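Batch job 17 of 40 flagged for manual review because the log was empty.
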Amino acid sequence: MVRADNRYSRLVVWLKIILPIVGLVLLSLLFLVARPATDVQSTIPYAKVEIDEIVADQRISAPTYSGVTAEGDAIEFNAKLAAPSPNKPDSITSEGISARIDLKGGTTISLTAPQASVDGPTQTARLSGGVEVNTSAGVVVRTDAVTTSLETATLVTDGSVEATSSLGQITAGQMTLIQQNRGVHVLVFQNGVRVIYQP
C-alpha cells in the first residue's frame, strides 16, 4: 500500500508540473501559428486616385432624400451620385435619379432621369436628360425635363410630352401635375393636346 501511495503521490506531483507546461506550449503555438495580419491597404476596394477625387469633388454615393409635404404627400429621391453645384453652393447636382411621390389620395408617381439639380432656396428639383414619368393609373409620360416642387408634390414639364395610357396615345406641348382643393392632385395635358384613342 505504501508503494502504491508513493506512486500516486509522485504522479500527482509530476502532473502538477507537466500539465501547466503543456498548457503554456499550446498557448504559445496558438499565437505563433495564428494567421498573419492582412494588409489593410490591399483590402480597401478604393484606389487612392478615387479617394482623392471623392475628397476634391465632395461627392456623395447613393444619397437619399425623403420628406412629407404639408398636405401629407410623401416624396423620396434616390441618386447614384450627388455633389454640390459649383455655381450655387446651396444647390445639389446628381446623377442616376429615381424618384417616387406617394400622393395622399392613393396615386403613386415614379420618375427616372439621368440627372437632376435640387435648388435649396426654392425647394425644387429639376430632372433632365430624358425623363420618364409613370403613374399607378397606368400613364407613362416621356419628356426632356421636369421640374417638381418638394413642398407641394407638383410638377411641370419644360416642353412637349408623349404619353401612353389604357385609352391610347397622348401628345401635348406641356404636362403639369397640379394641386387642387383639399390637396387633390390632377394630371393636366395642355398646349396642343392630341389624343389617339385605341379601344
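Reviewer: the log was empty due to a logging misconfiguration, but the result itself is present. The chain is about 25% helix and 45% strand. Unflagging and moving on to job 18.
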